[in-house]
Amino acid sequence: MGSEDRGLGFFKDIGLSSNNIGSFIDGKWKANGSSTTSLNPSNNQAIAQVTEPTLQDYEEGLNACNEAAKIWMTVPAPKRGEIVRQIGEALRAKLEPLGKLVALEMGKILPEGIGEVQEIIDMCDYAVGLSRQLNGQIIPSERPDHVMLETWNPLGIVGVITAFNFPCAVLGWNACIALVCGNCVVWKGAPTTPLITIAVTKLVAEVLAKNNLPGAIFTSFCGGAEIGQAIAKDTRIPLVSFTGSTKVGLAVQKIVNERFGKCLLELSGNNAIIVMDDADIKLAFVHESIYKDVLDQLVEVYKQVKIGDPLEKGTLVGPLHTRSSVENFKNGISTIKSQGGKILTGGSIVESEGNFVQPTIVEISPNAAVVKEELFGPVLYVMKFQTLEEAIILNNSVPQGLSSSIFTRRPEAIFKWIGPRGSDCGIVNVNIPTNGAEIGGAFGGEKATGGGREAGSDSWKQYMRRSTCTINYGSELPLAQGINFG
Amino acid sequence: MGSEDRGLGFFKDIGLSSNNIGSFIDGKWKANGSSTTSLNPSNNQAIAQVTEPTLQDYEEGLNACNEAAKIWMTVPAPKRGEIVRQIGEALRAKLEPLGKLVALEMGKILPEGIGEVQEIIDMCDYAVGLSRQLNGQIIPSERPDHVMLETWNPLGIVGVITAFNFPCAVLGWNACIALVCGNCVVWKGAPTTPLITIAVTKLVAEVLAKNNLPGAIFTSFCGGAEIGQAIAKDTRIPLVSFTGSTKVGLAVQKIVNERFGKCLLELSGNNAIIVMDDADIKLAFVHESIYKDVLDQLVEVYKQVKIGDPLEKGTLVGPLHTRSSVENFKNGISTIKSQGGKILTGGSIVESEGNFVQPTIVEISPNAAVVKEELFGPVLYVMKFQTLEEAIILNNSVPQGLSSSIFTRRPEAIFKWIGPRGSDCGIVNVNIPTNGAEIGGAFGGEKATGGGREAGSDSWKQYMRRSTCTINYGSELPLAQGINFG
Amino acid sequence: MGSEDRGLGFFKDIGLSSNNIGSFIDGKWKANGSSTTSLNPSNNQAIAQVTEPTLQDYEEGLNACNEAAKIWMTVPAPKRGEIVRQIGEALRAKLEPLGKLVALEMGKILPEGIGEVQEIIDMCDYAVGLSRQLNGQIIPSERPDHVMLETWNPLGIVGVITAFNFPCAVLGWNACIALVCGNCVVWKGAPTTPLITIAVTKLVAEVLAKNNLPGAIFTSFCGGAEIGQAIAKDTRIPLVSFTGSTKVGLAVQKIVNERFGKCLLELSGNNAIIVMDDADIKLAFVHESIYKDVLDQLVEVYKQVKIGDPLEKGTLVGPLHTRSSVENFKNGISTIKSQGGKILTGGSIVESEGNFVQPTIVEISPNAAVVKEELFGPVLYVMKFQTLEEAIILNNSVPQGLSSSIFTRRPEAIFKWIGPRGSDCGIVNVNIPTNGAEIGGAFGGEKATGGGREAGSDSWKQYMRRSTCTINYGSELPLAQGINFG
Amino acid sequence: MGSEDRGLGFFKDIGLSSNNIGSFIDGKWKANGSSTTSLNPSNNQAIAQVTEPTLQDYEEGLNACNEAAKIWMTVPAPKRGEIVRQIGEALRAKLEPLGKLVALEMGKILPEGIGEVQEIIDMCDYAVGLSRQLNGQIIPSERPDHVMLETWNPLGIVGVITAFNFPCAVLGWNACIALVCGNCVVWKGAPTTPLITIAVTKLVAEVLAKNNLPGAIFTSFCGGAEIGQAIAKDTRIPLVSFTGSTKVGLAVQKIVNERFGKCLLELSGNNAIIVMDDADIKLAFVHESIYKDVLDQLVEVYKQVKIGDPLEKGTLVGPLHTRSSVENFKNGISTIKSQGGKILTGGSIVESEGNFVQPTIVEISPNAAVVKEELFGPVLYVMKFQTLEEAIILNNSVPQGLSSSIFTRRPEAIFKWIGPRGSDCGIVNVNIPTNGAEIGGAFGGEKATGGGREAGSDSWKQYMRRSTCTINYGSELPLAQGINFG
């Protein structure tokens, strides 16, 4: 059955077919490894085949990338911005089919799939402006006829390893900034979302070609741990941006640090929402005085949520990404129960060909060990607290430090929450849930979440090399700190 | 013989005596470990005794420090700045005796000893201003009735592990900034410079006491690897600033990362000076056309340099810090010779009670393995080059990336040197040597030097926790990236 | 004769015809004043007719604009950025015909005409990024439970009065920034370039309409002093950005200040180029040692320059903009002669239907009064100097402070030139002429040039209202400076 | 009777006597004008005599200052910071007697007098840090082998004209920043507070002398409009910082602008406090639902406030500054009555030798013309409102735009108040009154208040000259905007 027959008519709009080559090396599509199948999480049927690269392909790609780096880093930054602008335009023209592909291959619902692509486009627009603002500083020197400069230069190559849950937005956060900063990008997408990796790379490749720039500026690989490890070990890659679990992230960091490289880590999260007694809206630490009310409403809502095909209008919860995620969910639920958790709604697998599970609300003690782990699935733990201080201690007691939120209308609670003794997360929201970060801010988390920051604010500095330069343009050699020999 | 008889009359000005307690714990001087002797590197005679802390002392210190952190972080930043200002005044009043102590115990010449103390004072002055400029940001949100904030909050406790070569300036870089940022400081000085650690701590302690603040805000330990390791492992210390060798630094980083802490590393350097053919002054990659001239002059100068007691006027080269440094020097010279290096001057140990060695010039091929290592001693390698490109490749070929310098009068050479394809070091100087950094800039190096940045510019951000906060102050819940369900 | 017969086929691409309405009011093209003729400076023949607005039209426009301001200022800044992005796309699609129009109506050569339009496009791209970076600050308060914020809010309406010499780029500098900052724009173009004003406005209007936004967000008027004065006096316009002569600028500033408004002034320039004896390239204070050589070459080049139709390939000098500019040139030349100036080449009017004059080189004493005035025409004064100090004094001795340049290869000269005792201009170049500013920097000049800064850097702050907010979120009322009553 | 007998024993601590010379010119105390008497506002008796300078003295002072400027601007900024640090130390040592002098001569109560001196000290501390942070920028150029710099250089001389109400703090805001920025300062204090001007100048003068710097770096004049006008007209003074009434400020601005100078204006204020119905504390637009309650309490408090000698402990309201202020108060009260205002408490002059008046509460319609004027005296207008929108319109309806405050506990009210449609003032407070600004923020107001910003944030930029420098360090001359001739 052809791809159009299976509703994949949009495939050709984005350069995909039933058989695809899974790596873009030195400006060419080329892969000599084994073939892998991309599965639809809604029914576990094959979407298309992808040939993965070998380590030799990797090596060839990196050699070319390393050469391209010498060219790209000397292209003036605003000219690099112009290339990123064109990438944004190319994505904008394919927003709809790319969004569909994300929904299809990853399993998130269509509005979120389109939202992810839109996020790369937003990042492109943002990076264009930034390309004229990668500013160093001129710092007054304490010595006459001297000037101090703080300069920012490209690193050379940035490795980007992304995960299935945000199969393209995270590439956007990293690649748009890395590129305007003068770096080549080596991307390894998630092994289970190869089509997204290929489709996005194709658009970037076309823009590079149209501008007569080496394709190797953007080098991309479908593949798994083998390629990931090659990136981690590669001394040609001064910075590796890794998104994934805390466990794997720590291992990557160790390898990269040993060769004096740097990491930008976006690891596990475990995000709390605190609902104060004066909150307008109801969402999962809940003040005891409103606990019952909030819970009743939540359970009601969860029961009505439509689960199903993410491409279908009205669906609010799509499938989990893989069979093994379903397994994890199942194990998680039984751990929850064994630790005293009470399932208020959901908790079961939805019988179907796909990877569907019920959105689940669990009443549980904050002391249960399971609540300190990241459980990748639609499970909401609900816990009671009495004071804000207590709720903050609960929030900060998990090893992860990604996102957190409070619902309250009291300025003292808001400022306490965002202050020195408040939430210790990287994302600290007020009256909105823990998701939905905007690109103008820096995205990332503390503690076991890894400490990296991506997208806006001064995140770009991580993609550049800082030097402090003192220039003596006079004819004498005075020393700092007033040192005077003799 | 009393300390005054041995020229140590200044000891009592800075609170030292012949027997000293080597840790400041919970605002008290208290140590239950073994006694160690501080030696004068000029004659290897005892200066004074110091009792070191035990791990139990450490634990007591950290418990108190952890409590103090809760107080200190809520003191308004400009009030913290006022405390740091008073510390600066206290140091200023003791500049002379402290400078002498540095020369005596570390072995560097007096002007440099005083320069080091002056550097802490400068850091205090700088940090006072900074205490009103630890600014977060208000970032425009894409959603109506929302605001995004980027906030900076204290980390809690900052561990500072310093090395013998800068026994107090590096504390100044870290502690002044860490304190105004709202962190308590846990300092472990070098095991061979305990008196400096004690003397500086005493001044800080007095200021805290005078202001009725917990002494535990500044907790300090003399001691060695045991205490260092305790700091590295301590989950109460989110940031460890470590100065020392690449080898030890990497090990510290591994331990700290495993517990999700962060490191600020200032590791080994290996610093090159490039002398172009148009340079006004002569210094140690040398353009071949001027190579002979430069070398002849250098050798002449090196031969005349006065080696001796660092406290004596006119001395330009003091002793190495310890006997084992002398041993390292000796081994280094024989390695150099075995790799084809030619000793043009120096190369020998000066026979004496102290740790004196001759300043040494070595003519050597850039391919010799020894030039890629940090050799802690007064050895200058001289190498020829033909083009600036070649000199930069040599400069960048060592694993370390601390400091580097070029002497030239050509703007094109200057900007190439500080640009994307120039020096890959953290410090990139022009027409001044590789030392002498000013505090207004960020100090530190890349690659095996560890990537940390201390003192000025935005180094303070490393001592704080960044959060991106989105506040919804309206009554609706719009989503980012224009996502619209249904 | 139809417009196409006169080579105006491109007119319809940009919404122009032989009769045009010269004001865009409340989203409608509407003008009740007299008709004016746009002339081609190459032959002084009519290009097209334009009906100008009356003061009543102005009033209607401003009323609508004032209402629109209330809406536009509450649109989130990144959404405003999206509108400006679309404006950029609209201009990009019409780059060629708009560039032609600039060449035709203003008289500058085609590459410069296209360059001017490209500059607005670049500004749009830049402003899109900026729309997520109009950041306020969170400043640490000295009082517990207090926070200080520095916020930036829109002004409401920004008036932009532009001059004939940059009939659209200057609009771009101002409007792109003003719009993302949340301001409506009221534009009055130069009276002699009404077609450019209309064509650019049409593109903006379409984008606003397509997005269902009030057209009055961008209100534009062709017209002269009457409309200009209305803007200057209008209390609804907190900021007036004016480009023109120092004389008129001062008058505008007086009127605006009297009503407590602010001005952003880009007034007369009078730009010097210093050629040092070590300069690689030859351009007009010239070091005496190379004076004769430089002058001979310059005269030779000036004689060969092709004068003619700005739309014709190969032309390097187009006509002056109007007949009266030719008259000014003529008077200027005779003043020059009467003050001892010696015409080395050029100095005459080119007999033709158009406003052509010869590019002119004058040897003259720096003491001649005429060199301190802005002479709007292709006249290069050449003067000798002996030392850099002397050349800087000459450069700084004119009342204007727009642009200046030095040609040298000596770092000490470069840093002296850009340092405290160097050029006192807003633009201080090295080894490039005095023109050609990039949008990433702030454009503008000091002294009689008015002190305004447009385009990049932090110029956006001028288009916003800064507030310093102290928020007490605790329950007590401490005072600053430690004041304690009683 | 000697000064000690009159309780002026502290005079000699700060270099004052019964006869004082009122100008510091070229490092010398020298004045040839007439003698003036400083009066104690509490009893209108003479405190001491001061000889004022003539215009010839002024000229001599400015000539010396102009020469000193050439030296001072080339002293490295951190070294200038060290001088300002020493000025801070000198003031700190005299905090008590200087504070007393402010209370005595100006009439404000002692804690506020000391607070004012403390504010200069705080400014000194702040400026020291700033002296290493007067950073320019390195901006990426769109052209290869080019770099763009934004540099900040000293202006030369800054004129500071201060008013009686803040006779020394405002000098501190301006002079501390102006000095570290590399400018000489020419200060004219208020004609009625000459002793404060002299005492502060003496401390600065001593520091300059101790450091072997020209005294003319700080040039100061007691005196009135004649000296003020001389400053305004003086082309040697590129920036005049003026504090005073809107009327005089506008006149000064006009003069300064005509000679292409710049003004930094701190003019009249007229500050509103909005008390919302949910406010915790009670202070002068009051929500109607709590209006009666708030008013009753306010009237009660006002009646109990202790009026009297500002040096006496317990006094909360000192005298007005001069007899003419009392006259203004009297006229103001009668205007208020004639416009329908109802005096709820106070309203009368206190019969005494001094300039005492009663703190006054007036119930009045917002439409009364008098409420739009600055009435320099302790008069509180109380008005009712129904909605926040209405209160903001009232707040914004006065010509002045200095300070404003809201008391509320609702986040939506807070963010509306500080947002685009909120208060149009420079100071926008929440839950604190309209006074008590901290130096870390920028102080100043919009509209008739003049638009200047002093003290913290980026206020320093106003005291420097910005240049955008493009440096071509390559060997070709590309043009911006991709212009390509031929």
UniProtKB/TrEMBL annotation, chains A, B, C, D:
The enzyme's main class, written as a single word, is: oxidoreductase
Signal peptide start-end? none
* Domain Aldehyde dehydrogenase, chain residue ranges per copy: 34-284
The UniProt entry, under InterPro entries, shows: Ald_DH/histidinol_DH, Ald_DH_C, Ald_DH_CS_GLU, Ald_DH_N, Aldehyde_DH_dom, ALDH7A1-like
Keywords assigned by UniProt, alphabetized: NAD, Oxidoreductase
The entry's active site is E266
Q: Does the keyword NAD apply?
A: yes
Source organism superkingdom = Eukaryota
| The protein's Enzyme Commission number | 1.2.1.3
Q: Which Gene3D superfamilies match?
A: Aldehyde Dehydrogenase, Chain A, domain 1, Aldehyde Dehydrogenase, Chain A, domain 2
What does the record list as coiled-coil region(s)? none
Q: Which family does it belong to?
A: Belongs to the aldehyde dehydrogenase family.
Subunit structure and binding partners: Homotetramer.
Return the protein name. aldehyde dehydrogenase (NAD(+))
